[in-house]
Design brief:
The complex is a heterodimer of chains A (218) and B (95). Chain A is mainly α and 218 residues long. Helix content of chain A is 56%, strand content 0%. Chain A folds into two domains: 88 residues, Orthogonal Bundle (Rna Polymerase Sigma Factor, Chain: A); 69 residues, Arc Repressor Mutant, subunit A (Orthogonal Bundle), CATH 1.10.10. Classes of the chains: A mainly alpha (218), B mainly alpha (95).
Amino acid sequence: MQTKPNPGFFKRNPPIAGESEAIEQAKSGDAEAFSKLYALHKRRVYTLCLRMLGNVSEAEDMTQEAFLHLFRKIGSFRGESAFSTWLHRLTVNLVLMHLRKKGLQLVSLEETINPSEEDAPRRDFGSRDTMLAGSVDRVALERAVASLPPGYRMVFVLHDVEGFEHNEIAAMLECSTGNSKSQLHKARLKLRELLRNPQNLPPLKGLSEPVGQKGVGR
Amino acid sequence: MKDIATANLDNMTPAQFEEYLPELFEAGGGKISENPRFRNFFKANPNCAALVSDLETIAEQAKSLFEPTHEPSDSVWSNIASKLQDGAGKEDRDS
């Protein structure tokens, strides 16, 4: 039996037409329903993997793993959160596990406390004429995020893009909430620095331009 | 993390103000740039006002990245479908 969902969970993940039926059918092993769930969520899961990993091949592998894992675990989805929130959490955990297996320290203490001069945001309050003028081009922001140091990028994507809370991020990354907040702040400072000179941003390494955004803002 | 509720804004330097920013952004309650408590401080420190405004813009624009922009190649689904046909995950589902 499904638990009554908390409407607060659906702020950024409104239910998709036909999704709940597909979920129930997929729980019974209906391959067609699973195919529908893949079609509904593949882009979002893949984009999340790509942002976290910065590598097309690994992102596709992890997308595949996420959906195979979904197939195995869908019976445990009780509707206590939006399905996409649940699926994203599952995906994030798989990607983090993958990174840990590769031996990557996700939120590097070194990076947090003593970032390299090149990577750390400068303590610079700037001047009014170089501020971002209240708007940021989406493609430029995507490029800037991709060029963040991994620890900063991970927390920024999880918090500001995916909408996870600091306590959730801290649990996922096995760090303190203070560390998560600090990483996020430094990530935003670094982005500001990068976005002040968008012409210097490197192209998305190994990535094509986003779907429907061949160099043009969307 | 420091608590700005007890801080004296009158003689705060920009560097000191920045130390409060991570918590200020987390505190919610609307935009920092529009908080009347900081009006005089921002007037006296326009660079801090610019910094806060920029960080607010970045955080706001980040939400637009939530919408997916990339698509996996068709081979991803082919691999998934093939593994499902081979019974991948059946053990977990049956247990």
